[in-house]
Amino acid sequence: FVDESIEALPIGPELKRALLVRVWGSAMRWLEVTTELLVATYAKERESLARGAFARRSETVHAIVAGEALHSDEASRILDYPMRRHHTAFVLWTDDTDPAADVLARLDSYARTFVDESNGERVLTLPSGARELWSWVAHFDGQEWASHVDARHSDLRVAVGASGYGMEGFARSHREALAAQRVAVRSGGSSGITVYEDVQVPCLLTEDLGELRELVARELKGLAGADGVTTRIRDTVRVYYENNCTAAATAAALGLHKNTVRYRLDQAEKLLGRSVDQRRLPTELALIALESYGATIAPAP
User: Fold this and answer.
1) What range(s) does the PucR C-terminal helix-turn-helix domain occupy (predicted)?
2) pTM, rounded to two decimals
């Protein structure tokens, strides 16, 4: 149409060509500007919608965790995640301080491998800070999923709660994963995976490390020493308690001769200043706390 209109003008060929170049140049510039504006507007709207969806998801998750009354079907719709299932919660984080690292993307990718390897139905992830991710896996049965998590990434750490059903189980498993994370962080250890059921006793004891340190010093005395010999003796006493104070079962569990177990128990009693069968409960709690928190609550030498 443009070409035909210019061709019909009563002007010379040279002027027509110049006019065509001018018109089409202006048209191309208009098209470029319009396209850029459309793309920018689309991106802005898409980002706004994404922020809104993320805000709704975050608000819903925090409401469930806080125990607020929500309908499970409505929560499932907002989260695109089935609430009428068993759930296992994970907290994933890293101590990596490299500002250039795309930490959340790595954590999210790692969380999704739990479903791939365990035939879970769905995974839900939610960032909690720049270097931490909350995650849940929905599954049909109540199996414990800690065995499906491997420490393939040495710089990524995971805390795992026990499985629970429905929204209540969703929230409880998350609280347990957070509690396990606190033990992992405060212990100063480098273990890649911390399972709540392995640390639930120190989680329930107290969060006051000073009190735990006093418990360890008061109950274990010399048995709290950090040297290799004392550590082996302490581990023997712990396994002895786990096996209902039976020397034969302790020897079998540790792969030792019964006489070796008895010798170590004798050494433990010298360090404790009493029989290992006295004050068993506080002594066992102190042993568990020291095993979980390590040097963080070890008495000063």
Assistant:
1) 235-288
2) 0.70
**How confident is the model over 235-293, as pLDDT tens digits?**
999 999 999 999 999 999 999 999 999 999 999 999 999 999 999 999 999 999 998 88
Q: 200: burial class by Cβ within 10 Å (0-12, 13-18, 19+)?
A: middle
- The pair of structure tokens assigned to 32 is 């470029």
Q: What angle do CA 63, 185, 287 make, to 5 degrees?
A: 115
Beta pairing class for 86-94 and 164-165: antiparallel
**Total tally of structural domains belonging to the chain:** 3
Would residue 245 be called left, alpha or beta, if left means φ above 0 and alpha means ψ between -120 and 50 degrees?
left
Instruction: List the domain range (segments joined by +) for residue 145.
Output: 76-204
